[in-house]
Amino acid sequence: MQEATPSKEGHTQPLSIEHVPDVEAAHLPQTPSEPSGVAVKLPGTPSKYSVPTDLDVKFDDGTVVRSHAVVLAIASPVFGEMLTTETGKLRSELMLPGKLATEFQMFSQALLPAGLRPSSVTEESQYLVLVRWANEFEVDALKTVCEDHLIKDIPVKSGSLKHALQYRLLRRRAQCIRHMVPELKIYIEEIGLLATEQTQEDLAAIWPRICEGANVRLFRMPPVEQVNAMWPFVCASVRLQAVSAVEHIHTGISKVAGDTTLSFFDRFVFW
């Protein structure tokens, strides 16, 4: 897979989504004798790989997007169930209430075989959209590719752990924890999101660091229900200790700099 590399302007270069399994030509229906829409086909692409746009996807604002029922049904079990009739045929119309046509177009294009994709994904916001769609419609291969990009090219910041937890990005979650623990003062509130039954082991692993940051004697981590109840106090304690440490350093610097009677040994002992 071609990896995204930072450009001189700080943006990432296009990352081709080649982990998404290509749809084999043998699995595609033959093009009907009567046109069913404009097929997605790039110049020089063998005709057997053209995919007919045989589906009208409708949105709340009245927008209609022509798409590929067979590609959606094969890539996504959710779409497969939505599109398949009781007789086993694929529907020619589909309504997606509450969705944006622009996001669907980006998602559906990412599912196409590599040679048929009209554009590449380049921006962080685009990958965040694709992660959300891939999670909802259970396209694990696409979600994995997006997670690879986030891990490699998008720095951890406030909100990153919440996003990883929301969309079950396990490797991104681990990366966020490694980055956030050394900066408890900044991220302590978000780290509290780990206080769930599903992620309590991650929280238990960093519990000693949290106790240290709050300047309390290490004790066994309580059940997550209790941790959630006490977390506002944990956050306040960690931030107070961080502020106290800074104030102590500033006070010490002022004392040493202003008191000329202190000997070198006194100054050494003070620190």
TrEMBL record:
Composition-biased stretches (Basic and acidic residues): 1-11
Ranges annotated as spanning the membrane: none
Database matches in Pfam families: BTB (PF00651)
Coiled-coil region(s): none
Domain of life: Eukaryota
Location of the region described as Disordered in the Swiss-Prot/TrEMBL record: 1-45
Domain BTB stretches: 53-111
The name this protein goes by in its record: BTB domain-containing protein
Organism: Prymnesium parvum (Toxic golden alga)
Lineage: Eukaryota, Haptista, Haptophyta, Prymnesiophyceae, Prymnesiales
